[in-house]
Amino acid sequence: MSKEESTPPFIAVILAGGSGTRFWPLSRKGRAKQVLTLSGETSMIQQTVERLLPVAKAEDIWVLTNSALRATIVEQLPQLRGEHILNEPVSRNTAPACALAAFLMERLQPDCVLGIFPSDHVVGDAKRFREVVEAGVRVAASGDRIVVLGVPPTRAETGYGYIERGEGVDPAVVPSGDVRAWRVKRFTEKPDRRRAEQFFTSNAYAWNSGIFLWSAKTLTCAIRQFCPDMVAPLEKIASAFGTPDFERVFAEEYAKCTDISIDFAVLEPRSRRGEAKAEIYCLPADFGWNDLGSWSALHEHKADCAPQLLWQKNVIDSADPTSITVDAGGNYVYAPGKVVSLIGVHNLVVVETEDALLVTTRDRAQDVGKIVAALRKAGREDVI
Questions:
Q1: H helical segments located in 117-265
Q2: pLDDT digit string (tens) for 45-90?
Q3: How many CA atoms lie less than 13 Å away from 135 in the CB half-sphere?
Q4: pTM here?
Q5: 8 Å CB contact between 271 and 185
Q6: Other beta carbons within 10 Å of 101
Q7: Which has the closest alpha carbon to 49: 34, 38, 68, 39?
Q8: How far apart are CA 27 and CA 301, in angstroms?
Q9: d(CA 137, CA 11)
Q10: What pLDDT, in 10s, does the model give residues 242-299?
């Protein structure tokens, strides 16, 4: 599949809402993770668009974000159409966002395949990413089928959802080509430690990457079946697109949609049909995926070493190159321009900005959002 000849049309939808609280204090309301340069030379959302352009035309890429980030995203993505960068009037989780894209495309390009992509992931192998996405488009276009990309797990992670794979499928029946595909048995949201370890050792599970592919028709039909209360608001919004009333209708109707993830709204109820009837397929996200979900994940990514060696690898980010460590290991420090000295400390996360300082451990880095919530409760909107 190429940008010039994609049959059916492929529409890439990038989800770029959220405030990125787990990267506080570097991330703020108007400077969330997706617009930061955490890995590489460009922002996370710019990298997302760059790896999609070989499989989708620029005019076929849409972004769903919020009012705090839209201006920055428009500035960072000049190659996209401004009217295709929509800011949700209220936050309503991933199901309404995905469904809105499907209802819009049902009117604009009804025969298209939709790909849903988070805006803040790292992909190490862009070529393999394209191969898997192209295979997923073929599968999604071949019938009433849903494709999810599953990441081969590298550890017993409790912070991700899991996909239980069923039997492998014949590419002559399900056209995934050279990319292996499995039927999906079920989805499990973030498990406890015991279950995560079972999943990891069984070799039958993958992490849910949050990347999905389906035809616009498949998703709108699923929303009509499983989330009927959302249909009328979404249809009104879609019918108003391109008219002077769009912003008003969007604001009035989107708030009526249920605040629910696409996993709970569509994938889980559909998987209950059973492995053979659900028509949900898992393709491998074996392209060096990392969601950079916390400072600890960023440490792991930048340490670039085997998991068992993370405890001894320090990452000193944006600091003076003469920074020094003595008997220290497993630390992440962000201190732009400063000489950092670490002596006898392990497993720390230290992040300094002009107006805030964070000190925690890598084990507790997932809890940084609690600090943001406490600051909001204290009325310190100036630092969040």
A1: 126-141, 193-202, 216-226, 231-240, 246-254, 262
A2: 999 999 999 999 999 999 999 999 999 999 999 999 999 999 999 9
A3: 24
A4: 0.91
A5: yes
A6: 26
A7: 34
A8: 18
A9: 10
A10: 999 999 999 999 999 999 999 999 999 999 999 999 999 999 999 999 888 889 989 9
